[in-house]
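Exercise 7. Predict the joint structure of the components listed below.
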Amino acid sequence: MPPLKLLDPRLRSLVSERGFTGLSDAQVQAIPRILGHENVVLIAPTGTGKTESAMLPVFSSLLSEPRTGGISALYVTPLRSLNRDILSRMEWWCARLGLKIGVRHGDTPASERRRQALSPPDLLITTPETVQALFMGKRLRRHLSGVKHVIVDEIHELAGSKRGAQLAVALERLHVHAGEFQRIGLSATVGNPDDIGRFLCGARPFTVVQVPVAKQLDISVKYAGDTFRKQAAVLSGMIGGKGSTLVFVNTRVTAEALGHELFERGDVEVHHGSLSKEVRIDAEERFKRGEINTLICTSSMELGIDIGRVDHVIQFGSPREVARLVQRVGRAGHRLHTVSRGTVLATGFSDLLESLVIARKAHRNEIEDVIVPVNAADVLANQVAAIAVEYGEIELARVQEIVERSSVFTRCSDMLADVCRQMEEHRLIRIDGSRIITTARARTYLSSNLSMIHDERKVPVFDIVSRRTVGTLDESFVVGWVHTGAVFITKGQLWRVLEIADGKLTVEPARKVQGDLPSWEGEQIPVPFSIAREVGRIRRSRSIREYSHDAENVLFAENFLTEMDKNKTPVSSDELIVLENTDDGVVCNICAGHKANEALARVLSALVSARFGTTVGIELDAYRILLRLPAYVRAADIRDILTTLDPTHMPGILRLALKRTALFKWKLVQVAKKFGAIDPDADFERISIHRLLEFFDNTIIQQEAYRELLSDYMDIDTAAGIVALIASGRITVSTGPLSIIGAEGILSSRDQVPPPTADHAVIAAIKKRLDADDVVLCCMNCHNWKSRTVISRVPEHPQCPKCGARLIAALKPWEEPLYAIANKKRKNTEERATELRLMKNANIVLSSGKKAVTALAARGVGPENASRILRSLAEGDAFYREILKAERTYIQTHRFWQ
Amino acid sequence: MKIQFVSEGPALLVRNKERILVAADLHIGIEADLAAHGWHVASRTNDRLLRLLSCVESESPDRVVLLGDVKHNLPRTTRQEYFELPGFLSAIRKTVPFHVVPGNHDTGIARFLQEGELLAKNGAVLDGFGYLHGHTLPSPDLAGRLIITGHHHPLVSIYDDVGCALKTPAYLLAGLNDSLLFRETGKGLKQGQKQRRKGGGTRALFMPAFNECAGFDIVSIIQHPFSPISRSIIAGSAEVLLSDGTYIGPVSSMEEPDAAA
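Solution:
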């Protein structure tokens, strides 16, 4: 029977009234299964009527089922704007079917919420966070007991995040009230649909309905020039024709910069998350009405918000991931059976190769997996608090039963106990034997922690020159990315960071910066390992022609590689790592993707900082790591470390190294906030954070911060795999001067690893102080020359310019009068002793030169101490360590304190 | 006369005729205040007690001076303090005699102390050295001496070629301007001047906080002084020592590297 025939007759007439000429593949396949009350994951490209595929059979069921008086169906989307969009599409059907529809999310006014509590709608459209809130009220909980269908839209957006894990538990909490209900997930294409199904349904059976996407995609890649201005000009030439264009960029900064460049055309608008809701909706509306034909946007436009007809999607710069490219290009041709046309504008050599690899993978439907987080401790804490508030008091075993029914928690009894102990410490719950009991704090905590999204505080950016605030940045951005000296764009201008303090960022206008775009990237999208490896393979085999027929692309890439050959700089690839010396440190060219490079960079910097006692700065992207180092650490040193590293030691080194980084502290704060250990509005300024975070040592909070960083931010297993390939000789490591590949691209500046002991830094501080110390040199041979200078200017072997002798005494400034005493014709006993001391002093300088002068300048070090220090024959740091020891002894004594 | 640096504390062992162990700014009960500011952590009072007792054990002092801000909350005493202070103080009392030079946070501390334990707010001289919490003008008795003082919680940042390598509690030693510090006390000042002729003028040794979660950058203490004693620091005389007594040098030698360069 054709699927339409299966629907309720009232619905069938509406389908033709709505102007449906036929059903899409997705609808044909999904409708019978959903009508048959199966759990379904529907995977289909945007614009194939996914919402209707789910809702037509759900409406049909609602019409035939007896009314319970409560909510019958929940429709969950990740975004409020998507809620509004779905609402306006569903209202038409509901009005004609006599079904009540409502929307409830953060923006819903209190009056509407009250109305819903008193008289609930049949279909409620909501967000994962508001689902959490539904359980808090007694009346709303009762309304939930009649839920028969739950639809999760854009489920791929949720499944990989803690938001999703929270929703998965919420569905099991709903199960307690409503019994079994039908689960429907609507997803864009992913590599692992079965994981999405398990995420939605736990251990229950489900069916995956998949409509392939690749045949409907037409993606081309085009090199757009080497400067931002040229790239913008190429873009400008591609837009403004007859059709409408969506231009996707990877960062807000790029969106702003392009908007600035193309502003004068008058037919272009910018759309991203930092703009106010009004500005965004205005841009959407004007695009929909055709008043402008180009919208420059970030991921804000990725999801299925209806903005009318899109003829062409341009991706500015590599999309970084296959899934992202497919999703974005899918916005074009928003109608059944039309081909989605997309163009990637590549902005450099690596960017071009990467884009070509991603385009190839998109055509072959090789889309990345969504990794569902399992056993996230902060999600568990959040849900324990929520369950405690929901039930007042409850057996711990029951809590475990509820959370383990979802696929995001398994065998978590130990973890649950740890989490509860931690929560009891914060007075979020009380533990009474095998039961947990809610507290007053739990409700307060819950109402400010409904979301697992880290709420961002805004840090004002203060311009010290004009003495005014010029904008704001996300707090996590400031903590995680911005460092003193960093340059960034805001409000179309370049700024350099002077200071991060007092809750604000002090900056000055920067006039010059290398390249045309800022030196960091805000919303970093990691490039997966497999893509970076394939780029490495193209570099090695030089097989660009297999990937592109565009003459310009091929010419540019081949010329670039020829240039490398001409410079005699080896081309790093999947089988070759090239370490290059620069003025700032060492560039390690490693084609391993962001996450593996992140892990590798941190392991390397930990080892360098331990071996050389220096702080190491890290900047990286998918193809290179810049280690910022002092001038005495060179590429050959890094090669030694890399080739002797034991891959099995790497996870341990990484854990130790992470603890000292800004990234870890930032993540720890986030997790502690979700645990209720830190309130959302906690005072960061008054508290010296670096010490306070030690309070979380060896807690479940610290464990979760590690777990999340090691799984979401870096890939230590892949990094260890690379090192194993080096050890086995399958990857070669060479060194050389900076190449155009090493210097290419804009590195995202991020973190610093301080040395494990600050010994080296302390020595450096003391050396600096001694170098700047004043010294009086006086000749003990002719008794007729003295000169005041600073240590750093003293020659290796000081010599008297008058008599040429090297018998020079080195006096501290306040000892200068002693020279006159020693030069007296007639002396008393005390004065003769002074002369003797000066002679002794000069003799030490005669035999040891400048080293003796340095030792004699130290606090409380006279000739006796100095000769003891010099006798130890210590060199370099050890020499200064001897001085430091002598000073420390002196400082404890009476004479220092007088 | 000798001053030993007990880096485990940080604390000082001042040796003259007797051995006095000094610890400043314990801030017992800080956790309740942290919670009020959004940081919920378990009380660490017992860790601090064990650390102090371990210093006492290793240095075997004749007595201990707690240099102010023993408790944290003001003006009221919190439940946490009522609950924890008596045990904390009696554990010390059982081991060694002690004194408290009260600080600005020590309102109401007297109820927890026994006779002879509480010293004057404006400082006291013990065994030749001055002891002062640091939030008030000092007693004229302290003029011309080395004043050991708390209240300022100095922290120092040490930089290497690449960035900040170390941020750690430190001591600040500085000469003080007597005419600013002993203004209205003519008689005392004269005594002080007499003292000064013998010694090297009034100086202050600012101690780092014993409590582990507090600190102000040394450079900012000098640039933005917030007490009578820090306002009277003689420019250029301030020197920095690490908590193990390592002499770092004058404050002027450790300005931050020029960020804009």
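Discussion. Residues 2-254 of chain B form a domain with the Purple Acid Phosphatase; chain A, domain 2 fold (CATH 3.60.21).
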